[in-house]
Amino acid sequence: MNPPIVISTVHGKGLPVLLESIRQYAPDVQIYLKGPDRVIRGYGCALLFGDATNFGDDYNAVIRQALRDGHGSVVIANDDIVLTPSSYRMLLDDVAICKELNQNPGLVASRSDAVRPIQNVRFNDGEKLNGMKFSHESFVRQLPVVSPIFAWMSAEAFEDCQFPPINYFSDDVICIDLAKKGYKHFLSASYVHHIGSNTIGRDAQQLTLAAKPWIEQHRPTYAKEWF
């Protein structure tokens, strides 16, 4: 069974393009969509209605629903990305490689053009372009933290750790929490186009300040390192 793609949205501005790219390039994949009734009603997906709260709680809810329906893993997707013809299949191929090598993958995430530096296709270590991309883009790479703008996660990993109830730093927290339980995170050769921070907003300072109290209270060792 192909893992479903799970999406949470607030305004749904990029949804028509995202959903069309899924239907074109991963037509057999089930889609779970969470968001306000006025935004998501009418889309041909498994719908989970509810006002938006924060990235962590919203994605926990839609992932939990997919797992309750019997899926053994999910592919988490931001609502502001666009798939390419190989995005979904290449991601799962890399997950299979990690499993075959007994790497116990936690999150396996795609590369993109608007994402943290080491996950960004613009990132390189002085390497020259090989054709239209850098050679390292074709290989799987282990990383301590990845941003799940398009990322695979197993039911087992989700049962061990959920996203914290915050927007900014939610990916950092869950990656480090999972690593402490023995999981490893990987950067896939898969690629998705990212419109860029439409999911939670663009004001980095405001988002940091909003997340800081929860992290200081619940992950004080992380707070000492990050702030």
- SSE pattern, N- to C-terminal: EHEHEHEEHEEEHHEHH
Number of strands: 9
Strand count, sense and barrel status of the largest sheet are: 9 strands, mixed
**Helix run count:** 8
Strand content: 15-25%
Mean pLDDT: 93
CATH homologous superfamily classification? Spore Coat Polysaccharide Biosynthesis Protein SpsA, Chain A
Global geometry: globular
CATH class: Alpha Beta
* Overall CATH architecture: Alpha-Beta Complex
Q: Give the radius of gyration.
A: 17 Å
Oligomer: single chain
Kindly report the CATH topology: Spore Coat Polysaccharide Biosynthesis Protein SpsA, Chain A
Q: What's the helical proportion of residues?
A: 25-40%
Spans of at least 5 consecutive residues whose pLDDT stays below 50 are none
Structural class assignment = alpha/beta
In total, the number of domains comes to 1
Explain what the structure shows.
This protein is an alpha/beta fold and 227 residues long. Helices cover 36% and strands 21% of the residues. It has eight helices and nine strands. The chain has helices spanning 15-25, 37-40, 55-68, 87-100, 155-160, 170-180, 204-218, 220-226, and strands spanning 5-8, 31-35, 46-49, 73-77, 81-83, 105-112, 141-143, 150-154, 184-194. Strands 1, 2, 3, 4, 5, 6, 7, 8 and 9 form a nine-stranded mixed sheet that branches. Helix 2 (37-40) links the parallel strand 2 and strand 3. Helix 7 packs antiparallel against helix 8 (220-226). The chain is globular and about 45 Å long. The termini are far apart.
